[in-house]
Amino acid sequence: MDNKCWICGKQEPMMFTCRHCGKTFCSDHRLPERHACDGLERGTGFTSGNTGTSGYSRTHTASQSQGKDMDEVIKNMMKDAARNAAKGAATGAVHRTRSSIKTSPSMAIIFICIISFFLELIPGYVELFQLVPSTMFTRPWTLITHMFLHAGFGHLFFNMLVLFFFGRELERRIGKDLFLYVYFISGIIAAFGYALTSSTGYPMIGASGAIMGVFATLTVLAPDMQVYVYFIPMRIKYALLLFALLDFALMGANDMVAHTAHLSGVLVGLYMGYRIKNNRKQYRRAAYDNRRW
Prior knowledge:
Mean pLDDT: 84
Largest sheet: 2 strands, antiparallel
Oligomer: single chain
Strand content: under 5%
Structural class: mainly alpha
């Protein structure tokens, strides 16, 4: 075997043979990265009984072991960072949810409706809180509790989706207390509207009547607000008209939807919206007169 360095040709008392490519190198070029070792890229190995070679192999093996230990340290650090980030995100989400429930009536209603949806799995829960027209006066709590029950996930999802966007917008415009007044008055009048017009006497559940009242109130206060109905952009006043016409057209369809409750909620919402709007005009007029005097 040639006893000269394969890179520079230098000859030393102790030469090193690379265990990856099998070539001989001086102390300056003994490391694989110093002589562009092609055997290292191929993953091949070379063994020899030479004392210098075995010493080099032990050194390189120790280097590999240290590299593996460093990889493990980095992996553990990354795992800890990911775990802490996930924990922080979960804690932040819980904090934001609690804060929104405390500060927003719409979010509190959504939270209660979701919890109630799971409680519906309990036998007798729905029967206890649903609105039955024939027992409405003997079980008056159902005028309120029926708003927190839903017939299925789709029913819950779409009601809460509308409440999430338009309920919070109405809160911002009229305040939390007045929002709650609009919501529950619309839901209660919607229940009476259904009870007086229902010929089947089927039980009624859902927040649709109350939500239609919220939607109608917002329509009066901001008639030109842009909304999307099935991904079609339109002004909110046209969206409300479309919903009302559909409910009116389907009143006799016997499709297990309380269309008269929806329409009753719309009527209450329109009344409340015009009342709030007129009160604001009177307040601004009185404020203007006071400034003038």
